[in-house]
Amino acid sequence: MSPLRRGAFTRQGAMASAGLAAIGLAALNSQGNAAWLFTLLMLATGGVSWWWNRRRLNRLQLTLPGPVDRRRETPALPVAINGLGRVWLTAVIERADGREERGPVTRIEAPAGLLPLPPAAPGDRAVTAIDASDRWPWGWFSHRRRWTCDLALGTGPGGHRADQHPLDLAGIRPWRPGDSLGRVVWRRLHQGLLARDFTHEDPHLPDRQRALHTRPVLLPPPIVVPPVASGTVLLLLGSLLLGTLGLIPVLPLPLVGVAIALAWWRWRRAQNGAGAVGLTLRWLLVLGLLILLIALGALRMGLDGAVPVFIALAWIKALELDRDREVHLMATLGLFANGACLLADGGLDMFLLALTGAGLAGVALARHHGGPQTVGPLLAGVPLAAVAFLLLPRVTLGSTPLTGEASTTQTGISSVMTPTSVARNLEDPTPVFRVEGGITGQSLENWYWRAHVLWECDESGSSWRPGFEPYQRDRATFRRPAVPQPVTCRLTLLPGATVPPALEMTIAPPPSQVAVSGGLVRWRRTSDKPVVYDLTADLAARDTSASETALLRARDLPERLDPQVMAIGERLRRETPAATATAVSRWFVDEGFAYHMEPGTFDDGIAGFLLRGRRGFCAHYAAAGTILLRIAGLPARVVVGWRGGERNALGDYAVVRHSNAHAWCEYWDGLGWQRFDVTDHVPSVDPRTGRPDGPPRSTLANDPDRTGWWKAGAQALDYLEARWDLLVLGYDQDQRTAFLGRLGGVRTLVIATLSLATAGLALALWRRWRHRPRGPQRAYRAYLQALAHLGVPRRTDEGPRDHAQRAAACHPTLAPMILDGLNAHLRLTYARTARDDDLARLESAARHLKESRISRG
Amino acid sequence: MTTSPRPDLGRLNEALAVLDQTVLGKPLATRLALVGLLARGHILIEDIPGVGKTTLATALATTLGLGFQRIQFTSDLLPGDLLGSSIYDRERQVFTFHPGPIFAPVVLADEVNRASPKTQSALLEAMEERRVTIDGRTHPLPLPFLVIATQNPLEQAGTSPLPESQLDRFLVRVPLGFPDRSAERQLLTEGRERRAEVPAVLDAAAVVLAQERVTAIHVAAPIIEYLLDLAERSRQGGHGLSPRAMLGLRRAAQAWALLDRRDQVEPEDVRAVAPAVMGHRLGADGLARAAAILAAVPVP
After folding, report:
1. For tag attachment on chain B, is the N or C end more exposed, with fewer CB atoms within 10 Å?
2. Terminal-to-terminal C-alpha distance of chain B
3. CB-closest option in A797, A830, A832 to B223
């Protein structure tokens, strides 16, 4: 084997890793940070492992006699290998201007194959080097530095003749009956029996030396390339399956079923030792899947249409999984499928799913190519990705997020309030937003979150809508109370929320939103991902923004109002607004009204509730209260939003769910709008007795019917998701700027990074210096290394003397030096006393042997 | 490390050359036999009759200038026949001790596994203690003292195989086997006359001196670690090597190094003698196990 020197397979590894960046870039604008983090993770691990493996690459430096007439050469170089089942090679040529250019990376299977050269150009020089790897030279999982293999290249003077068979190289030829085994070294490879007749190598050598040259050391046992192991198949199928399951929101369900069936089928085949599925069957399956996609209406343009086709074809590819090449392709498909999951959803669960899927693909590759050493670079990539995530500026690109049906909300507070819409919300436990900070010691029941202010009702009085310029962009005005109750909290608004909540009464709107009249905030820009914003509120402040028109509209009554209701309202009119409100609430209590979640429907709207039903929930009481107040002469309006929330035991935050949806009234008392929540006064219906003797709603526990470990588990999960949403998904450009500012600005950061890098380098150098073998051991190691590079590595079961003698026999010209070094080593290590110059002799021998290797190269 | 004069070494190698000329085509066996003697051990040869066991023993004795006795072990051989006995001297009215054939520097115990266990144990006791006690009186055996025991393959009828505890007393088991074609041709050409020409190269005093020199051969720390590794490996499942075996291995490696005219033991010395020292101590497939152990333990 010719001496090897370090080189690089940079392009292929970098390109493969960079491919993953496409997912992140595509996802930046939609699911932003999760995809961003995933991409950085993949890139960082790929980069670290590329850097890690970079030094383990091998380059075969060739010395060819002068320029070669490329016109006479075939565009490929015949290569024979011996000792390994396969190697990956790429030829390096020197262009006329001195540039190096690499050809494609090609797998050469034992015993021989053709290595394509880069396209020829006038004035090109010969192939100057061969980069070689015993693994697929991909960014993540590459190279062993030390491996042994005979390479024979068809690079004689005048180049390679087209009629020359690669097997003619190195004297390897198929075995023929009658070959004398005494003179032919024969081996069984998976292609058949091969022979190599050493007597033809050099007829001038004396017999003994020729025998030494043909020592079987140069011919290690053959490696038969096995089909892909069933464990690897399982891992790859698992990776692709996870990616497929993560894409369920944008995939037609039958396709997912088909994918699972195909996975099971392929796995069964792998278990039974059967390889890929036959070609005809595969084509039939492609046809069938296309028909299925057409029938499901999934074959359309755009990202939503591309994903089903991608998944369908990926599964067809999974059926072809049989050899090395497919392993790499399948791993890449698995990575892409899992990366694409983040386009549909960037939550913690989806991120973990994608990470697991990508991890499975990685483990499959590592398993296939062997080597737990790949784990080190992968783990080393994690902190790198974290640092990059924290510091890199965010790029905003125009892209289309995958909008599956799951992301269209079925519930949520809308600007039209009907008893039905509110009831639908009350049954939905999905979180809408989380509140952090400022909730300690507060009773959440008194926290009202405003979403919409409704002025106008329909003719029956039960359906309310904004009506009156709902999103007027004037600055809201407030009346500061004598005793302020300021609250500052951070909200994480989860995807699917249609309106940002404002705590009553928000006095400083968040920077990313705007305040509008009515104490509300509105979007400055909408987003599908979690939005984090801080707001400052004063729980005792009141909205004072009201124009003459507004106060007039706040007195409008429904067109078809029952006279009995009018009479009730008139009867409740008092001298002052506060007294009127008290009278209204007392009337509800005196008339036996009660809070009930399923009051049924009333044909004549609010009149039916007031006159007959007398059972209802917030929507009924808000509408009825407002109408009664208006009849009694007070300007009044309905506000919808949320009330209360569930405190999380693990973190100092609360979750507000759709089921916290609430509606209440506000009336104008001459100075500002005063909240008036009737449900605080009426008792609730006891579900067991059916009688209205329960406590008012405001004192009811707001939690769903969960206890014990279930609740603890749910809260723990929610806590994790809250951290993820806040720290990862909520880490936007503003947060990054703030973070950099806290670190002391960019300059400090650069200095700190450089200092850290210097310190790390110093530490690494110091450790290397500290752990270096000293004196005789170090010299002997260098001596062994030099001999190993000369093709005579020492076996573990071989003594130093035997080894040196073997090396001397293989390299007769170097024998005196080899034996001199050996004797010095033996005296240094085993004798009672060594000579004074023994260490110097051993070091000198090692140095000379190393130099002889280089000069030979 | 030069307490003894140099010429000893030259004469040792001369003796080895003479041995090789006498026992044709068995350089390893002759060398191991000499190692066994120099390391103050005893030698076991397990082989079929007629391959040169007696020739080796007599040649060793003659070349080194030592006395030689051969005892043919049979099933009716008694310990007294081996060790000697006190016989009443009627004239002097006392019991006089008549030493048995074991009182010789080189003793060939032929077909040792044909004797009764009682006789076998008497021999092995004498080998270990290097003295014989009869009727309360201790008679030291001569120095040097070497027993070459031969053993027929165990499947032959009428044998009592040596138990493992007693096999441990033998330092090395020497493989002899058939000679190769050229050696046999030489043997057939020259006939038996050539044996009479074996000259004495050394004498008993020189052999004792050489034995003392063996103990002075330096064994460096890496070699001790290597020996410990071998012992540890051998004890992983099944029979392991006893501390006595390890001491013997160390001594044998020293002797091997001495024959190479070196003052220190090297890993190759240990590897050269290890199969012969370990083979009979590791059960039925001892040689294979010894080879496996040597292959598995990294050489320093």
Report:
1. N
2. 24
3. A830
What distance in Å separates the CA atoms of residue A41 and residue A239, rounded to the nearest whole number?
A: 17
Query: From A822, which residue of chain B is nearest by alpha-carbon distance?
Result: B266
A799:B267 CB<8 A: yes
The per-residue pLDDT for A182 is 39
B271 vs A: CB within 8 A: yes
The two counts, helices (H) then strands (E), for chain A are 23, 31
Instruction: Provide the pLDDT for residue A23.
Output: 56
Mutate which: A825, A829, A830, A835, vs B, most B CBs within 10 A:
A830
Measure B98 CA to nearest chain A CA, in Å. Answer: 48
Residues of chain B with confidence (pLDDT) below 70: 1-9, 153-159, 191-197, 238
Residues 6+ apart with CB under 8 A from A836: none
Question: Packing angle between helix A32-54 and helix A10-27, nearest 10 degrees?
Answer: 170
- The nearest CA of chain B is from the CA of A786 a distance in Å of 18
Residue in the structure block whose two tokens are 């409100």: A581
What size, in residues, is chain A? 857
* CA-to-CA dists, residue A514 to A508, A510, B39, angstroms: 9, 7, 100
Q: Could you tell me which residues are beta bridge partners of residue B133?
A: B138
Q: Measured between CA atoms, how close is A84 to chain B, in angstroms?
A: 23
Contact yes or no for A799 and B297 at CB 8 A: no
Please list every residue in chain A whose beta carbon sits closer than 8 Å to the beta carbon of residue B1: 832
Q: Do B268 and A802 touch (CB under 8 A)?
A: yes
CB contact under 8 A, B264 and A826: yes
Neighbours of A30 (CB within 10 A): 22
Asked if the C-beta of B268 comes within 8 angstroms of chain A's C-beta atoms, the answer is yes
Instruction: Report the C-alpha gap between B175 and B51 in whole angstroms.
Output: 11
Q: Give me the residue spans of the domains in chain B.
A: 7-75+104-131+141-216, 217-300
Quote the ipTM score.
0.85
- The 10 Å Cβ neighbour count of residue A180 is 8
Q: For chain B, give the number of residues.
A: 300
- Compute the distance between CA of residue A417 and CA of residue A641 in angstroms, rounded to an integer: 10
CA A668 to CA A636: how far, in whole Å? 6
Could you give the count of Cα atoms lying within 13 Å of A222 in the half-sphere of its Cβ? 19
pLDDT attached to residue A257:
93
Of the partner residues B222, B294, B298, the one whose CB lies closest to the CB of residue A829: B222
d(CA A32, CA A44): 18
Under DSSP, is residue A725 helix (H, G, I), strand (E, B) or coil?
helix
Token digits of residue A51: 């850097």
Show residues of chain B in contact with A799, CB under 8 Å: 266-268, 271, 299
A832: chain B residues, CB-CB within 8 Å: 1, 218, 220, 263-264
Rounded to the nearest angstrom, the minimum Cα separation between B262 and chain A is 9
pLDDT < 70: residue spans in chain A = 1-32, 49-75, 82-85, 110-111, 120-128, 134-227, 302-303, 323-325, 369-378, 394-411, 468-476, 496, 509-517, 523-529, 687-688, 690, 692-707, 771-774, 853-857
pLDDT for the residue numbered A58: 60
Q: Which two tokens stand for residue B297?
A: 């333990």
Among the partner-chain residues A796, A826, A832, the one whose CB lies closest to the CB of B298 is A796
Q: Which fold has domain B7-75+104-131+141-216?
A: Rossmann fold (3.40.50)
Which CATH number does the domain B217-300 belong to among 3.40.50.300, 1.10.8.80, 3.40.50.1100, 3.30.465.10? 1.10.8.80
- Looking at the complex, does the CB of residue B222 fall below 8 Å from at least one CB of chain A? yes
Q: Considering only residues 201 to 220 of chain B, which have any Cβ-Cβ distance to chain A shorter than 8 Å?
A: 218, 220
At A527, the amino acid letter reads S
CA distance B261 to A394: 77
How far, in Å, CA of A529 to CA of A535, rounded? 19
